[in-house]
Amino acid sequence: MVARKKEEETVSMVDTFKEFKDTKNIDRTTLMSVLEESFRNVIAKIFGSDENFDVIVNPDKGDFEIYRNRIVVADGEVKDQNKEIALSDAIKIEPDYEVGEEVSEKVDFSKFGRRAILNLRQTLASKVLELEHDSLYNKYKDRVGQVIAGEVYQVWKREVLLVDDENNELILPKSEQIPHDVYRKGETVRAVIKEVNNENNNPKIILSRTSNMFLERLLEAEVPEIADGLITIKRIARMPGERAKIAVESYDDRIDPVGACVGVKGSRVHGIVRELCNENIDVVNYTANIKLFIQRALSPAKISSINVDEENKKAEVYLRPEEVSLAIGRGGMNIKLASMLTEYTIDVFRELDESEVDEDIYLDEFSDEIDQWIIDSIKGIGLDTAKAVLNAPRDMLVEKADLEEETVDNVLKILRAEFEGN
Hints:
One of its GO terms (cellular component) is cytosol. By secondary structure, the chain is α+β, with helices and mostly antiparallel strands. It is built from 16 helices and 15 strands.
């Protein structure tokens, strides 16, 4: 039974060593150092010191050797059993040992018992985990902004867990997912590396598919002129999965930046649109002329005139009635993206004929029928008169004045009644 127990301990010891010998992401020299340090930690706990021990790691063979070095002293004069050996005991090892010589004796680690082996496993596991964390952090810390492909490993409500080609974990939070994205275990997903955190030496690689950076990198991959520096992406505005506006500029007059980015019949953006769940992409020429830039940003609407307040970063845009809905866009999407792209607050107004202006009525005159806070909300988006409100898109009143649909419908009913009554 005793012999069998020792044999089991020896096997367990070899298995313990082999388990960590082929650890991923850790170079050979570092791993040997960690293994030796772990052995020494256990030896120091058992003998009080590891100074007089030689630890030889053989990674190719998957084993190790430990030797304890002690000085031979006369019988009865041993003061430190770990570092000294009595002459009579030394002679049992080699008969020609003399006092003062050094005895090097091979140590059978398995004889230290299960506790020592368990201690070694825990020490190794802790140090290897620490090294793997360091390796993961060092691998990704300088890769923020790069696109990476990962395999979906687990899908949760708040995030998706992906793994790279070395089975490192990558996190795609819900907030960084395109709303229409669907993830299935085993499929490959592309995203940009948004940030790399390393709190308490526990690295987390955060990915994003909604970041402007992701769209920018996809464009660089599809448009050689961008990668070569002939075209510059100046600004990006996105509503992920819905629509995006991109402002580009070329430093070479021979290159049409918009045409180069879109490609023949949209060939260069087709792949990007599919990648982004059919997110429509509008590309416009960038210009430092803010009036012209706002006009381009509001495309496909055609502007009649524009007033710009550069100090407060506000713009009043006037359009023909048929152009207003184009400028606003479905759900206010076009004007929102234009504001994001230009970094200006844009208010849209319908042009009125002089005859229409003469017949108009200021909103404040309806204070007996419409609550003042509602009037103030509507005036806050630049609509001061009844006809200005009636000519504005209903969606604009709901979205920009932040009013309930029922409230807007009631206001429109009151205003129409005024003119119909005349």
